[in-house]
Design goal:
mainly alpha, three-stranded mixed sheet, 7 strands, globular
Length: 310
């Protein structure tokens, strides 16, 4: 047995022991077997005459948000050294992206938006988009705006802008694009210290419920759910690290494991791969719905962007 295969076997065995789960390879499908209901603003809803209320996705159980007095950021679970790295802007490696985002915002965004007006914006996303008739995350809003108004503009803002709304223009900045991460980090920084405040918009309710169901749904060959890790076993240790409650208070974050900055979608993708499930499509409906639920679950907790995590 190779060293790499041995590590995988040990890690898998540890996860199964922690969660009291048993499964034979291939016995659990890597993605949900039941189809997801169409959501308002989704392609399925536009094709259907009426949208049904989201289902509980088969094995999904009801999940209640962590009680307010017991909720805590992942910052509280880190070592003192990592906490100090996040607190000190001069030592926080994510500040490289902040500075790039500051320059890009000045060159490409300031003609429409003032920096001061960005205060509190990140704390209110995902938010409903009237034009697209669906919710957008902050990163999706940036790439949509960039595709319609900024694409074609040079780094110094000296080229012509475009108001092109074609799908290929909106796809100009995928989730882990450096420009998107830099702009998202700089914009989210303006909300640092402010409480997460999801919009009271009834149109977001079905998306949050879809996200709640995904959070509770067992997935992958390891047959684990987000709720098992981040609610039932939060505070325990897995492979030497404390399992956090999973509140998205500091995204985009700099992870020491990644040696780079990453979005919430990247973190979700890593979790899904870890339980041997099919990852969500980039900027897909599942990722947006789960982020909408996670932000509502974290309502009231302060924003930390740019956060540092192990």
């Amino acid at each position: 047995m190779s060293a790499r295969r041995a590590i995988v076997v040990v890690a898998t065995a540890g996860a199964l022991a922690l969660f009291g789960t048993s499964c034979a390879p291939g016995s659990i499908p890597s993605s949900p077997s039941s189809p997801s209901p169409p959501l308002p603003g989704s392609s399925g809803a536009r094709a259907a005459a009426t949208a049904a209320r989201p289902s509980t996705h088969g094995t999904a159980a009801a999940v209640s948000p962590a009680r307010p007095e017991t909720r805590r950021s992942g910052y509280a679970d880190m070592s003192a050294a990592t906490q100090a790295m996040q607190r000190d802007d001069a030592a926080n490696p994510a500040w490289l992206w902040v500075e790039e985002g500051r320059q890009r915002f000045a060159a490409q965004c300031a003609r429409c938006h003032e920096v001061a007006a960005m205060a509190g914006v990140a704390a209110r996303y995902p938010a409903w988009d009237e034009r697209l008739q669906r919710p957008l995350t902050l990163g999706q809003r940036i790439t949509d705006c960039h595709g319609r108004h900024v694409r074609g503009m040079g780094d110094k803002g000296d080229a012509r802008a475009t108001d092109d709304a074609r799908p290929d223009a909106r796809a100009a900045l995928p989730p882990e694009d450096e420009t998107r991460l830099a702009l998202e980090t700089f914009v989210a920084l303006q909300s640092r210290g402010r409480p997460i405040a999801p919009p009271a918009d009834a149109r977001l309710a079905p998306w949050r419920e879809r996200g709640r169901a995904l959070f509770a749904q067992r997935m992958g060959q390891l047959d684990l759910s987000c709720a098992q890790c981040h609610e039932q076993y939060a505070g325990r240790r897995l492979a030497g690290s404390v399992i956090p409650q999973g509140h998205p208070t500091g995204y985009p974050i700099y992870r020491l494991e990644w040696q780079g900055l990453g979005s919430l979608q990247r973190r979700l993708r890593g979790c899904l791969v870890g339980v041997r499930a099919e990852p969500f499509a980039a900027d897909g409906e599942e990722a947006t719905a789960l982020e909408a639920f996670l932000m509502s679950r974290a309502a009231g907790l302060p924003m930390e962007t740019p956060a540092v995590r192990p």
